[in-house]
């Protein structure tokens, strides 16, 4: 993880360094102030006159010390700006995660139990169709129907407080979770179908155990590994993929902050947001690696044996 983080941080910093445009022009602003003396002073102030590796080391040292730099646009610490935007993004991702996990696994279980029947075909077809629509298209349709025409939900914003926040984030969470719901349901169905043909399931049926108990105790229990892994990967990707949904619904989160920073060439903010996305993905996937042996003891046994 440490090596991956260092490599990713260098790629992020070098990409900003190689981006078109001179950040000095954005820092000074008024073209009339672009004098050689002023340019030299700004470069020295932000260490832009130093070699790339020196600049990277200064930035990385600040990151480990909790200093993500100062925003070119807002002239405020980047850490403070991100801290004010992060709750909206985390709330949206958490809401969407609950939706696609509960509904996706539920549909997957139902399809697996009804495999080969009309219900199975209907669920597979519906989830495949849902996954084909981009989230921004779903978001626009939801806003048009449920916000503009029916007036059931607010058009934009993240709301204040828990209840108001739930009301504001319902449509964005649905738009964000539709495609993920389809993926989780298909993985759940496939994983369970593979378990239905296992010997331990046949043995459980032979003992006269009820069908529902067989599904819960023997089929679903042994199918948790791929399901949990996929859910975690989707959540990790969501933490870095709320840009479009936040833009559609006017949510002031990390995704919209990244868009604004890119448009205004606010390099310190772009670097910090991209680094957050890398760290978030690494943390989530690591947590899953630690949880899988608890959900499936066979994994821990294989690891010890190897």
Q: Care to describe what's here?
A:
This protein has 306 residues and is an all-alpha fold. It folds into two domains: 2-64, no CATH class; 79-305, MetI-like (MetI-like fold). It is built from 15 helices and no strands. The protein has helices at 2-18, 23-28, 36-45, 52-64, 78-113, 118-131, 135-149, 162-196, 199-206, 211-222, 224-239, 243-249, 254-263, 267-295, 297-305. Helix 5 runs antiparallel to helix 6 (118-131). The relative contact order is 0.13.
Structure in a nutshell:
With 306 residues, the protein is an all-alpha fold.
Topology:
Blueprint: H1 2-18, H2 23-28, H3 36-45, H4 52-64, H5 78-113, H6 118-131, H7 135-149, H8 162-196, H9 199-206, H10 211-222, H11 224-239, H12 243-249, H13 254-263, H14 267-295, H15 297-305
Helix pairs in contact: 1-14, 5-6, 5-8, 5-11, 6-8, 7-8, 7-12, 8-10, 8-11, 9-10, 11-14, 12-13, 13-14, 14-15
């Amino acid at each position: 993880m440490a090596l991956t983080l260092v490599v990713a941080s260098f790629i992020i910093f070098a990409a900003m360094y190689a981006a078109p445009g001179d950040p000095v022009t954005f820092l000074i602003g008024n073209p009339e102030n672009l004098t050689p003396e002023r340019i030299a002073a700004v470069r020295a102030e932000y260490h832009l006159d130093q070699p790339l590796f020196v600049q990277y080391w200064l930035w990385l040292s600040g990151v480990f010390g909790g200093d993500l730099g100062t925003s070119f646009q807002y002239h405020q610490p980047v850490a403070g700006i991100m801290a004010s935007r992060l709750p909206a993004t985390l709330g949206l991702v958490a809401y969407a995660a609950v939706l696609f996990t509960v509904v996706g696994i539920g549909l997957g279980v139902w399809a697996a139990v009804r495999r080969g029947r009309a219900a199975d075909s209907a669920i597979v077809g519906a989830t495949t169709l849902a996954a084909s629509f981009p989230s921004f298209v779903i978001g626009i349709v939801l806003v048009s129907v449920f916000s503009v025409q029916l007036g059931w939900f607010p058009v934009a914003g993240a709301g204040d407080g828990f209840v108001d926040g739930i009301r504001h984030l319902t449509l964005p969470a649905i738009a964000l979770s539709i495609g993920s719901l389809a993926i989780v349901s298909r993985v759940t169905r496939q994983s369970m179908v593979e378990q239905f043909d296992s010997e331990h399931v046949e043995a459980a049926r032979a003992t006269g155990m009820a069908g529902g108990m067989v599904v819960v105790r023997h089929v679903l229990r042994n199918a948790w590994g791929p399901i949990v892994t996929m859910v975690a990967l989707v959540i990790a990707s969501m933490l870095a993929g709320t840009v479009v949904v936040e833009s559609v619904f006017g949510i002031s989160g990390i995704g919209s902050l990244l868009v604004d920073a890119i448009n205004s060439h606010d390099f310190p903010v772009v670097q910090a947001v991209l680094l957050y996305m890398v760290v978030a993905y690494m943390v989530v996937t690591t947590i899953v690696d630690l949880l899988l042996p608890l959900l499936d003891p066979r994994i821990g046994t294989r690891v010890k044996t190897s």
